[in-house]
Structure formats: C-alpha cells, structure tokens
Amino acid sequence: MGEAKKLYIRTYGCQMNVYDSERMAEALAPAGYALTDVPAEADLILLNTCHIREKAAEKVYSELGRLKSLKAGNPDLRIGVAGCVAQAEGEEILRRQPLVDLVVGPQSYHRLPEMEARVRAGGRVLDTDFPAEDKFAHLPRRAGTPAGPTAFLTVQEGCDKFCSFCVVPYTRGAEASRPVARLLDEAQALAARGAREITLLGQNVNAYHGEGQDGASWSLARLIREMARIEGLLRIRYTTSHPNDMADDLIAAHGEEGKLMPYLHLPVQSGSDRILKAMNRRHTAETYLRLVERLRAARPDLALSSDFIVGFPGETEADFETTLDLVRAVGYHSAFSFKYSPRPGTPAAERAQISEDVKADRLSRLQALIDDQARAAQEAMVGRIAEVLFEKPGRLPGQLVGKSEHLHAVHAPADGAAPGDLRRVRIARAEAHSLAGEIRPG
Ligand code: SAH
Ligand code: SF4
Ligand code: F3S
After folding, report:
1. Domain extent for 375
2. Is residue 132 part of a domain?
C-alpha cells in the first residue's frame, strides 16, 4: 500500500457509470487511494462522463472550468476524464483543457493503477482502446466492504443496434457479455456483504448471451434463474432492455421466478412507425404493443416504463400524436422523455432538424401525460399492501425509505425494521414522489 491519498469521483449519466465508478475506486485502492466527498481534499479527481445528449457532454467542460482554481492551489492534484465523453472526444479533451492529465475510455479502467503512476510522475495519458480482454476480469471487488441493500452488476456492455440518434455503440463498443461464473461469484459476494437486491445492467441487457459453466451460451433468463438461487438475495431487476431482444424464456421468467421483480424498463422511443424506421429501431408500434400484452399475460401486475425522444428529425404533429396514443394504450408507471439532441457522428444529426420551440412544446405535452399516468399508478396503491425493501433512513426521525416491487419509493415509521429488511407495508397515502405507509406485523 502507498501513503493515503484521496480520490474524488463525480459520476454522470447512466447506472453503468455508477457501477464503473465503484470499480474505478476499487482499482485505485491498492495504489493507496481512499474515496472523499470533498473535491478540495482530493489528490486525484475523476469525472465519469456521459455523451448521450449535448447538455450531458457540455457539463464536462464547465466542470473542468470550475476545477481550474483547485489545480492552481494544489500542484499535486491530478485530473482525469473517464466515461463516454472520454471515449468520444479522446485527444480533443487534452487539447482543449490543459489541466486534464488523464483521459480514459470505459474499456480501459483495469489499467488505471498504471496510468495513475504515469500521471503522478508528470505525464499526460490517453487510453481509449477497445482491448480484447474483459476489463472486469481485472477489476476485482474488494472482499469485506459492506454493500448497501441494493447493488448494480454489469452483465453486458456495448451495443450493436446503431439507432440513428445514439452514441452508445461508438462510446461503449460492440456488445459483449460477461461469463456466467464470474457474475454468479460477484452476485454471491454482494449478497454475502449485505446486498438484498441486484439490478443487472447492460446497454442491451436482454441481449445477454454469456458463456455458461457448461460451455453453452446462456440467455439472460437462464442467468436470472440461476442467480435467484443465491441465498440472502431477495430481488433481481434488470435494465435496459430492447424490445427486439425480449425472448420467450425471459417473458416466461416474469411469470415464474418469484425473485424477479414485476417492473420492466422497455424503451420504445416513439409511437410512429415512420419515425421508428428513421430511428433504425427495427420494430413497429404494433409489435411493441403485442409484446406488452404478452408480458402482461405472463405477469399481470407488471409495471412498465420507457424512454421517449420528441422532435426527432422529420417528426410531424401527427407522428407525435401517435406517440401520445401509444402512451395511452400502454399505461406507464413512469417514463423518461427527451428532446432529440443531434450527436456528432450519428446519422440523424445530418438530417433537417425540428425547431427548439416545437420540441419544447411536444416534450411538455408528453411529460404531462406521463405524469398523469405515474400519479394514477401511485394513487392505485393507496389502501393496498406493498412489499418494501428498506434502503436507508427517511427524512423524518425514526422513518425508513425503500422501494416496492414496482419501484415506488415508500416511507414508513421503522417500527423495529432496519435498512436491508423486506417488510409488508400498508399504503396510507400517495405524496408527490413517494408513498407513505405503515409496516404490517408478520
Ligand atoms: N440502451 C438503452 C438506453 C440508451 S440511452 C436503449 O436501447 O434504450 C437512454 C435513452 O436516452 C434512450 O433510450 C433515448 O431515449 C435517449 N437518447 C439517446 N440518444 C439521444 C439523443 N441523441 N437525443 C435525445 N435522447 C437520446
Ligand atoms: Fe442506443 Fe439504440 Fe443501442 Fe439503445 S439500442 S444503446 S438507443 S443504439
Ligand atoms: Fe451516457 Fe455512456 Fe451511459 S453516453 S447514458 S454514460 S452509456
């Protein structure tokens, strides 16, 4: 172990970045780094960035601007940019921002200790290769550190779908699945350290096809069924799924595997077939609706969420209204919606663009509809019993908060329960962003 140094990581973007940030902290621990929440105390600052929309990418440069004074006051401070902006912009970051010492893409985190030594010695390092090896094989989790009640576990990374708006296939590379044995080991270790719920992550998580212990290729459903046998692990979720990879065995698992939670994030992006085609989504609104029907036949109380893009190039008012129709037909528990953001290097960025005003108008109309549905889903819980996995203390003394099977935030007086406990809670009322209830005995 080296002398104690402090590492500050700021994470942007999706859950996979959250997972990666934990792995980076663990990779740097043997080099003597302990995490801090205070940037001014840090010897090394890493920005784990997101490139998905223009605003996300801009945040990096404004944050780097803010770090200038820290670096001026501490010549030993080293600053690194990781994540999808690092992958997409690479050397350009070093050119634009002299204060950056290190640019590291998502496939190279296992080489961080070696890179750290080079920047410590005064070098500037750029590593955005896509190496053939599994980076996670070289990023062991430290045994013994307690895990929270909920944990992320990346099982698949990258994307071969090339939706015409999206940077992910360029920033995360080709689809790759981690081997089953490693994932079961990691899940086992997480459960042993206190994790009660694991969310399996992938850009196209349901395209998972990792090598099984028997040498065969395993589907996500098979992985979930095997993981469900781990003692102490009470819940499994997965995200994000593509409609075209929703295999029969995965649909069936929703009806059969008790630990698999009845919640599915299944992005559709648009309700217009014309726009779906222009997005290169390779499915129609009708095939999506039929898929939703089959999922609900397998698991009638399945809660659905989605992502939507409004103002995609060529989207007319009529196209947009079919998106509203689709939302009405499905009935979502929640959904994210975004104004289309042209991304450099993607095909849709080259097309004629919709005006900002139109995008803003459509976004607010879609969000109003989604908010109505989310509120209705919350209110439908009043008077009912939810199974809640408590995660942490609530806002008020003596209170705990956690999540229901359907991913509703629920708070209740602790009544002897602690974070990590699964309890039946009678829902008394729906508040703005959560449900309030009381733990039932037994
Ligand atoms: N792999 C997932 C999520 C990808 S990114 C999937 O296939 O659905 C998360 C969401 O960001 C996408 O679902 C999409 O709705 C949105 N998004 C991606 N690129 C975008 C862009 N250029 N402009 C606006 N939203 C975008
Ligand atoms: Fe992006 Fe489409 Fe791949 Fe999802 S499926 S990561 S939206 S290219
Ligand atoms: Fe953003 Fe990269 Fe995730 S672009 S959404 S951090 S995969």
Report:
1. 138-379
2. no
Name the token pair of 271: 């309700």
For 200, counting Cβ atoms within 10 Å of its Cβ (0-12 exposed, 13-18 middle, 19+ buried), the class is buried
Q: Is the dihedral of CA 90, 168, 317, 363 positive or negative?
A: negative
> What's the pLDDT score for residue 57?
86
Split into its structural domains, the chain has a count of 3
CA distances from 71 to 42, 64, 77, 313, 345 (A): 10, 10, 6, 42, 33
Q: Give pLDDT, residue 138.
A: 72
Asked whether residue 187 falls in the same domain as residue 236, the answer is: yes
Report which ligand 2 atom has the smallest distance to the Cα of 269: 7
- Asked if 95 and 169 sit in the same domain, the reply is no
Exposure b/e, 28-43, CB count within 10 A at least 16 = b: bbebbbeebeebeebb
Q: In this structure, which ligand is nearest to the CA of 171?
A: 3
- With H, G, I as helix, E, B as strand and everything else as coil, classify residue 402: strand
CB 135 within 8 A of CB 112: no
Q: Whose CA is nearest to atom 1 of ligand 3?
A: 50
Label the pairing between strands 303-310 and 263-265: parallel
Q: Which residues of the chain have pLDDT under 50?
A: 1
Q: Which residues contact 364 (CB under 8 A, 6 or more apart)?
A: none
Residue 372: how many other CB atoms lie within 10 Å = 12
The H-assigned helical ranges of 53-111 are: 54-73, 83-89, 91-96
Distance CA 103, CA 119 (A): 11
Closest C-alpha among 28, 24, 40 to residue 1? 28
Does 362 share its domain with 430?
no
| Nearest ligand, measured from the Cα of 343 | 1
What is the predicted pLDDT for the residue at 3?
A: 65
Residue 96 lies in a domain: yes
**Per-residue DSSP letters for 237-300?**
EEE---GGG--HHHHHHHHH-TTB-SEEE---B-S-HHHHHHTT----HHHHHHHHHHHHHH-T
**Are residues 84 and 13 in contact, defined by beta-carbon separation less than 8 angstroms?**
yes
Q: Global pTM?
A: 0.96
Residue 240 alpha carbon, nearest atom of ligand 1: 2
